[in-house]
Design brief:
single chain, 60s Ribosomal Protein L30, Chain: A, 2 helices, 125 residues, six-stranded mixed beta sheet, alpha+beta
């Protein structure tokens, strides 16, 4: 199968040796997105703002791949503090209609740039 790199300037550029996303066949694998605003590289302060920014970054990559939230099959959420779970869950849910992807959510000791949240996804056509 041919791997196609998906990239957009409407989401933060990779900060290491990886791609924003890779499409293989009908699957799209999106690297973990952190809440960096691609326009000015700023990171919002609150978990609410950070969660929305991450979702906007994911949406930009989905759009570049001609996909949308309905195409997600799996998400992985990484939180610095699981006390933020219910807040993140509420915001996350607002981006979907009635079909949610499979998901896990774990607490981690640290994330790049000391952000509070990171989300990676897998989508299909």
């Amino acid at each position: 199968m041919i791997k196609k790199i998906i990239t957009t300037d409407k989401a933060p550029a990779a900060i290491g040796p990886y791609s924003q996303a890779i499409k293989v066949g009908n699957l799209l694998f999106v690297s973990g997105q952190i809440p960096v605003n691609p326009l000015n590289a700023e990171i919002p302060a609150t978990i609410e703002e950070q969660t929305h920014q991450v979702m906007k970054n994911i949406e930009a990559i989905l759009t570049e791949a001609n996909l949308n939230w309905n195409n997600l099959v799996k998400t992985s959420i990484f939180l610095q503090n699981l006390d933020n779970f219910s807040t993140v869950n509420e915001i996350y849910a607002s981006y979907f209609s009635d079909v949610y992807p499979a998901r896990e959510c774990v607490q981690v000791s640290a994330l790049p740039k000391n952000v509070l949240i990171e989300i990676s996804i897998i989508a299909t056509e």
